[in-house]
User: What shape does this take?
Amino acid sequence: MHKHRVIFHPSGMRGRFVSQKTLLEVAKEMGVPLESVCGGEGWCGRCKLIIEKGMGNLTPLTDTEKKLLRDSELKSNYRLACCCKVKGDVAATVPEISKRSVQVVRKAVKEIPVQLKPAVRKYYLEMKKPSLDDTQGDLERLLQALEKQHNLRDLSVDYLILKELPDVLRKGEWKVTVSVWRTKEIIRVETGRKDVAYGLAVDVGTTTVAGYLMDLSTGEVLAVDSMMNPQVSYGEDVMSRISYIIANSDGLEKLNKKIIDGVNLILLNTARDAGIGLHEIQEVTLVGNTCMHHIFLKINPQYVGVSPFTSAVHHSVDVKARDLGLNMLGTGNVHLLPIEAGFVGADNVGVLLATEPWKWKKVGLIIDIGTNGELVLGNGERLFSCSCATGPALEGAHIKHGMRAAPGAIEKVEIDPSTLEVHYETIGGEDARGICGSGIIQTAAELFKAGVFLRSGAFNKELKAPRMRKGADGYEFLLVSKRETSVGVDITMTQKDIRAIQLAKSAMYAGAKVLMKRFGVEKIGRVILAGAFGTYIDKRAAMLIGLFPDCRLDRVVAVGNAAGDGARLVLLNEKKREEADEVAKQVHYIELSLDPFFEKEFVEAMYFPHMKDSFPHLNNVLKRVSPQ
Amino acid sequence: MHKHRVIFHPSGMRGRFVSQKTLLEVAKEMGVPLESVCGGEGWCGRCKLIIEKGMGNLTPLTDTEKKLLRDSELKSNYRLACCCKVKGDVAATVPEISKRSVQVVRKAVKEIPVQLKPAVRKYYLEMKKPSLDDTQGDLERLLQALEKQHNLRDLSVDYLILKELPDVLRKGEWKVTVSVWRTKEIIRVETGRKDVAYGLAVDVGTTTVAGYLMDLSTGEVLAVDSMMNPQVSYGEDVMSRISYIIANSDGLEKLNKKIIDGVNLILLNTARDAGIGLHEIQEVTLVGNTCMHHIFLKINPQYVGVSPFTSAVHHSVDVKARDLGLNMLGTGNVHLLPIEAGFVGADNVGVLLATEPWKWKKVGLIIDIGTNGELVLGNGERLFSCSCATGPALEGAHIKHGMRAAPGAIEKVEIDPSTLEVHYETIGGEDARGICGSGIIQTAAELFKAGVFLRSGAFNKELKAPRMRKGADGYEFLLVSKRETSVGVDITMTQKDIRAIQLAKSAMYAGAKVLMKRFGVEKIGRVILAGAFGTYIDKRAAMLIGLFPDCRLDRVVAVGNAAGDGARLVLLNEKKREEADEVAKQVHYIELSLDPFFEKEFVEAMYFPHMKDSFPHLNNVLKRVSPQ
Assistant: This one.
């Protein structure tokens, strides 16, 4: 079959490909780092290329491209790599804006203090070899040695291990290391002495998936990997994915495969980074909201979305890796944390394990910021939880210049209220490419403080300033002029962006108010901000836009990915699993869609920071903001 | 691709086939009932065809054919279907001798009296559907109902069942039937009330595999199927199969696949005969000698064959059907009975369960006749066992005119000692085609009684009679002239046949003698003959050829396939499984190859009925036999 030459500038990477492959597929095969949020589904518009030669050797411009590319781009021979197929030789340039950059894990993941009691433990054994006087079976010999040398009784053995046992025992000359899961089942037998065991803690978020490869003998994090949840192309929030599953008979199959493939990639990447084999990973613990949990297990999630909002199972679940199709030790288990109720799932249980609100005296609020936001309010007496569809705005999606926390992402912003001069910092100090989560919240807060938009969220049309202008999406504020960026376009925050932020923050705020009403409390004693970018959030900015009700600022703490921390805790200490099952049962879940006050609270919270509530701890700031 | 026409007479079945297929493959695809014992490996010589047209359109005559076909057959255009590939149009006749006939299960399998306590039991449930006041998880709801309505606690659930649970519960409108395995694990949830559960008991013999499909709610046998063990083409006895595995890196893989495919075929055939779906079969129990057991589980059996003869496991084993690749309910289990020691495996445990020798006062002998013969001797005090490689002669293999118990098989024979006139009966009263197991033993006994061969096993050359003659394999005795057969050839018993019978029977006899010596007993109070054709054996004939030491004939009982009965017992009553594990531990295994007396006993037992031992209970017969 005839093959066509494809070359990518500026890297100069080149190869030969058969017809019918898209340029995105070609780039993936060659390892060209080309951005693609939607994975080639044709809705994100991020895989822009400039065709230098051979435009006629590509399939014609599609409607998707006409919609997602600007006129100026179309005129400059821009194409979306996922939309054009190769029919002949092509040369293309990857513009700066389309270069995929690795999401930055900006600090070493913090160690979590926990006693090491992993579910998988290794035991070294030396046995007498069989003789005519001692002809017991290989398994019986192994079990006897485990009992005598390590006081382990009544163990079962995974069939796949039994299968290999005679050869392994003899290869190891009757000296072997046995991996035992939960003091119950033999899941591995290795020749000789092998002390180290590995496990992966996974947080499957609606938008982001993160994995932490851990050394189970030291508790150390050996490698971290994260990615866009590959299900994103089937819907951005849980309800739209459930709709997809209801509408398509193979929907569950497809979405399940996406996340299994995704976790397999994380297994591969972290194992490679740590320099270990995939079969060395002996256990995976996993958190996720109820919808993510169900789809991961290939359980139909549709009944979670409709009254009375029942899930398939609440208790924690252990499933053999081979039954799920995960590329790790096939006899190893995947432990999914329990589910609370409705969409408040294993991820929130992880947050609770990491924050332990049952130890509090004063009533506190835990906000897990994500596409599906989850709130817990309470103390040692009672805990209430709820879930709110915040959407992915605070994670950078649906924001015109939103991006992941990667080099060049604007993470800190200050705007002078009198001059509207902008000071900003980017990750890595590189030329700006876009705005990441923490930058989005801070930009909104600074624009509000400076009076660029009003308490209603509408841009202040009275304000005449060079940075204020009308763009394609209505009013917008120029943050960074294209001369200073690496992507060659102005970085702005638009009226549409503010509306998206507004919807997200008011869902959170209204949820908190409903929980406070249920608990019967007027003030909260502390706020914990959790979520992937929680560590970098400016808490004053978050309160200023009204992400949560008034609280003493020194009592607002950002803890980072607490759901992921919970997954790591149960990976390192199996006792935490019982704690998790216990707490999951005790939290009182409030279904916001059934709450009589939620809608009113939601409308009031649309204002910045709120239509009615006072913020004594922000008085200094708010009194400078125009009162409209 | 060009296709060639192939037509088979006398049925007239025809079809078109591409080059390179053998006539045996073509016949299989078309469903032409052509005999093939070795499954196309080219050693049995049973798939003879007469080529009517197109001899030039077949690949040339092979060495195998030259060896296995007689000169007269070669002259008459006979070919072996497995040895010639189609290169053009061919017309062939299937001679009577090559027509495959279904093995006859001559009597309905006897019911075995046992209390019905199957491991898989079904429970019907009616649940309240979820409401906003009762939002527990689907699994929690199911478990609660099982506890309240059936007093079942602490059940686990197979992940594959959890996966389907939300849909099944709602489809069944919260009325379902739950299958629980061993009061431990939920392995199926069906909508509505479904009372019947099915299971298959399988006996994997070295040469023959038999399966019994049972209704677990009534204990009734619904269908029976049996076949040649498909591993036969890799070696006729356990040691030769082990040699194959040692010599070939993919040997275990291949042999395992053969038996898994074989059991899958039995599942398919019996399910079809009973009119049920494959997934309705919820459990399989399986017996087999240690080598068959290991290969079925894909465990390397090589260490069983060499000192100190250790097996991978002695205890009974339960494995999920899906881990083995069996086409039945994937969440169902396969239960393998425990192993005693050496090659005395789960099959012998099955025999013990069915015969219960631990209840005996007098010392008895149990003989399980098979390619790998197994003996147990003892009583309520002690039990000894051993294994002897008898070879497949008593099952009809390696006997010139040996065949399976199918219509036309000679099963009963009488020979007049003075005239040497032969009276015989065939299965179904059809024209004779060959001799089946029970017929072989009886023919040998009658020939011995008539003085056709001597105590040494050598044909009596002094005897001049029309039926005595010299054939291609030395002396032979004409049983049925070709005019009376349906296969057009004389049916004889040859000197070589007698030698094969002699080796088999002396291995058994010598084994029994070694066990008697160990127990310290001179006489046995009873003999139980077990084995697939055991029911039809003439016990006087068996003792006359010296298959076992002297015993009162009314104390010799033939019980049929007791190993298979044992598999059925544990299928119907789970308590029998503990009994099996217990007895397997208590039997004293004697390794004959290490016994100092075995060789001498073996040589002495080569005589008919024995070189030295007296047979008081056969005195009437033996005194008429010439004393040479």
